[in-house]
Amino acid sequence: HAITRPDQSPVPCLLMRGGTSRGPFFDARDLPADTAGRDAVLLAVLGSPDPLQVDGLGGGHPLTSKAGIVAPGAPGSGVDVEWTFAQLQPDSDQVDTTPNCGNMLAAVLPFAIETGMVTPTGDTTTARVLTRNTGAVAEITVSTPAGLDGRRCVRYGGDARIDGVPGTAAPVRIGFLDTAGSVAGSLLPTGNVRDTVEVPGLGPVDVTLIDKGQPLVILDARSVGASGAESPEAIDADEGLRARIEALRIVAGHAMGLGDVTDRPYPKMTLVSAPSRGGSISTRSLIPRRTHRSIGVLAAVTAATAVVLPGSVAHALATAPPVVTTEAGSEATVGVEHPSGEFSVTLGLDPDDPARVTRSALLRTARLIMAGSAMVPSALLEES
Ligand code: NQM
Fold first, then answer.
1. What is the pLDDT of residues 47-100, one digit of tens each?
2. Which of 4-18, 236-250, 370-384 shows the highest mean pLDDT?
3. pTM higher than the cut 0.90
4. What tens digit of pLDDT does each residue of 102-139 get?
5. Element housing 194 (H / E)
6. How far is CA 82 from CA 115, 130, 136, 179, 196, in A?
């Protein structure tokens, strides 16, 4: 780069949408190697902390305060690409690399192809991607036709539609093997399908504490005085409701063995109610203090897993999903309703124990929005 401003320096970066999230993606080798230096650069790029993130690329919401750090898979590891997801916040200087993000994950293979880390193999390219945050491995397939110069490249346009994103785009197919216990250590960290927790100011609340890729507190919306049909804006504007949900989250965090989660972006809160649009369950997801416009990918996988788990709070309110039996075993397709539509998750079920989910598959889309460099104060790069 020939840019020689004395006080601002460029960091190569692709701004991408992954599913219903958006953020800058970096080649790990372009960021400071130490965590503190890396985080300082990410905060500068996003413009946090500031509710509007007016001095950076963030969009003033947790869903647009995210970053991806991508590297080639280690030789012999069996993965083609590895990445670290960073959750930032508009209004704090926290950079959290503990949880998964299945939405941003959808942009990782496109990024790896754009930057030459992965070479396309045919009209579609499949790669194994490791999320370093939790160790989850996903098999991802993207569309890679020949480009104008005859070389294969990522196709972003197409007919696939996901609720929560305008228009249509090329499909990004994601398959997960076991994602249980990503942050909480096991699928059911208390050992129970259902717990009753005592919440100060609210009393006893029945919950399912579960982690199939995202630690969730699943509760009947009515137990915090909601119907489950509220819009995200209505939930975010209701301070009393949010305070009740947050009080429950703190208690549940301890019960899940996660310690004091006051400043943590997990567990996420999932208010469930009976489906109303032909799906299996209706959800309102708080991530964790603002309400998702749809639902996170691994949050949807986790909620769907609870739907097929007899005794869970979700199972009790759900309409049983259709199950088909193929040569590969039984599959349930769970329709997770959310404020902007429905997220369909296909779960592979253990033939000996249909309450045990062995794999999950889902559809996302992604798009390269901008390619270039993010400018950050030079001192942040010199220090590393
Ligand atoms: O659960 C939001 C999102 C997410 C996370 C959040 C996600 C997932 O929608 O895998 O995708 O839960 O903070 O991007």
1. 999 999 999 999 999 999 999 999 999 999 999 999 999 999 999 999 999 999
2. 236-250
3. yes
4. 999 999 999 999 999 999 999 999 999 999 999 999 99
5. none
6. 14, 5, 10, 16, 39
Residue 276 Cα distances to 205, 273, 279, 337, angstroms:
24, 9, 7, 8
b/e string for 85-108 if b means 16 or more Cβ within 10 A? bbbbbbeeebbbbebbbbbbbbbb
Q: Which residues of 213-227 are buried (b: 16+ CB within 10 A; e: fewer)?
A: bbbbbbbbbebbebe
Q: Among 85, 162, 179, 214, which residue has the most ligand 1 atoms within 8 Å of its CB, making it the best to mutate?
A: 214
Q: Which residues pair with 359 in a beta bridge?
A: 348
| Ligand 1: centre distance to CA 292 (Å) | 8
Q: Could you give the dihedral angle defined by the CA atoms of residues 301, 307, 309 and 315, in that order, rounded to the nearest 10 degrees?
A: 160
Q: Give, in degrees to the nearest 5, the angle at Cα 180 between 174 and 183.
A: 105
Residue 104 alpha carbon, nearest atom of ligand 1: 14
Q: Which residues line ligand 1 (CB under 6 A)?
A: 20-21, 62-63, 100-103, 214, 268, 287, 292, 296-299
- pLDDT score, position 178: 85
How many whole angstroms separate alpha carbon 68 and alpha carbon 27? 9
Number of other CB atoms surrounding residue 70 within 10 Å:
24
Model-level ipTM above the cut of 0.85: yes
